Amino acid sequence: MAGPLIELRAVRKSYGVGTAIEAEVLHGIDLRIARGEFVALIGPSGSGKSTLLNIIGLLEPMTAGDYRLLGRPVGSLSDAELTQRRGDTLGFVFQFHHLLPAFTALENVLMPSLIAQGAIGDADRARGLALLDKVGLAAAAHKRPNQLSGGMQQRVAIARALSHGCPLVLADEPTGNLDTHSADEVFALMRRFHAEEGTAFLIVTHDPRLAARCDRVVELVDGRVARG
Amino acid sequence: MKARFALTVALRFLREGRFQTLLIVVGVAAGVAVVTYISALIEGLQGNTIRRTLGTQAHLVVQPPEQRSTPSLPPAAGSTMLRDVQARAQRPRTVDNWRAVEQALAGTPGVTAVTSVVSGSALAVRGEASRSVALVGIDLDGYDRIVSLRGSLAQGVARVAPGEALIGVQLALDLGVGVGDRFVVRTGAEAADTFQIAGLVDLGNRELNRRSVFVTHTAAQSLLGVPGGVTQVWATVADLFGADRLAQRISRQLGLQVESWMESNAQLLSALNAQSVSTRLIRTFTALVVMLGIASVLVVSVVQKRKEIGILRAMGATRAQMTQVFLVQGALVGLAGSLLGVVLAAVLLWGFSTFVRGSDGLPLFSVGLGWDLAWKVPLAATLAGVLAAVAPARRAARLDPAQAIRL
Fold first, then answer.
1. In chain A, what are the domains?
2. Is the dihedral of CA B173, B175, B176, B181 positive or negative?
3. ipTM > 0.85 (yes/no)
4. What is the pTM (predicted TM-score) of this model?
5. Which residue in A59, A83, A102 is closest to B15 by CB distance?
6. Taking CB atoms and an 8 Å cut-off, how many pairs form between chains A and B?
7. Residue B364 forms contact with A (CB below 8 Å)
8. How far apart are CA A96 and CA A172, in angstroms?
9. Domain map of chain B by residue range?
10. How near does any CA of chain B get to the CA of A79, in Å?
């Protein structure tokens, strides 16, 4: 399928609409990300990076504007349709890992499949194990998140984001909570998946070192795109 | 198929909050055990009381109207009359047209058995001994369907043939007779007849055992001076507690005086009712407490699991799926708690029937956990668990994933 992966036109976001404390945090964002791009989203605190990521991730509705995901507008979709779209096309990696503590590493990786299919087959299991192997955690497949280090948890989270073969992974400060060594490892892993699977990444980061190693940098300042 | 997701996640969530889960399951079990135990106990007690009371009497009795003295002189207008009316002595009276009444009763929906009896008081005499007895002329087959004479047979054969009688075991002792012996029944200066004892019956009640003499219709009719007539028509009904309504209906339809066991045992009935009402109250409040317990634990769990709910939603779990996760948790807690509770109740009931004994060393009454109760209670508790989970589940579904993750 040709065309951009995501396309935002004049997207605005306000909080507290209709109240005295109404505040616009995104003032008309235009952004296109092509298939297989590796993009960093930078900007000072409070510039609206996380909000933008949430809107792209269909976790939050925009107030105005046009957002097309894989060429299809999402503005008028119901919650159920958004959820479905989210499950099909998007993978998430969060700053605080956010693995499910009640499930093993392997089960966490397979959670998107469990949600979509209601059950885990042998093929899913093999795919999950292969992914864990790829992130170097084959031995930890049956460990709980609290038995893993921060870097390991984040690698599991990356494997999870990629487990259902989605075209775009959204990462919110994926290395923000890690030491330099683990951060490099995690970043290298994302680059590797990008190279091998052609998955597009949009990575929110504070770290200029990491941003410099991305293919493209989008900078957000005060709710506007300043660069990119 | 997708429901497996809800079950898998619900089980993990419950296992993760092991201590909470354990507490609430034990709480549910305690509630269920109390409800089941009390229900079984009251059911046993009431069943026993009703069996004892109704085992020896009919549910409906049709009898002739009482004879009244009617003053012949009507009071003149504007005057006051003082009079002293003497109540009439009640002779044995018969139900008019009793065969038709029997048939009409038998044809009434809800009536399960009908028989007619000829009863009156008499003296049972043997040698020096004489005892006042209730002489009852019966048709054994019909009577047996209402009061189990064959089942109460202690000695001899259950047979009422001309010239034969069945008598209570205590009466046999009082008269010093046994099966095959003869005795005389006397109802007046002249009227007397000799009967051979075919069998002894134990009706489970000392007074009845001391006073009962069962003979044929014909024998009782001639002794009591009501040739061809019967003094009462008896019936049993399918719906015990609807007996009074049925009695009223039959009374209106047939124009007869029909008395139900509920009238003749009004005190017993109000005691039973009071028991039923208190049982229902205990049940309702226990269920309420159990449901509040489940709900409060799940509400806390929703708050604790905000992040997880957010992640699941981000990964494509729908609101409906999140609702299911918590409804299933409610159901599982209700089911597990109630199964444990039923086992607990069974142990309590076993203890009751083993250790609580009457003065005769026998259990006070038979209690047991009927299958009926054993499957209804867990079903009800599971439904209650689902119901209790509705509010927490809705909270979980409404959780905004973006906010939940950020926290």
1. 36-61+79-227 (3.40.50.300)
2. negative
3. yes
4. 0.74
5. A102
6. 76
7. no
8. 9
9. 3-53+269-406, 98-230
10. 8
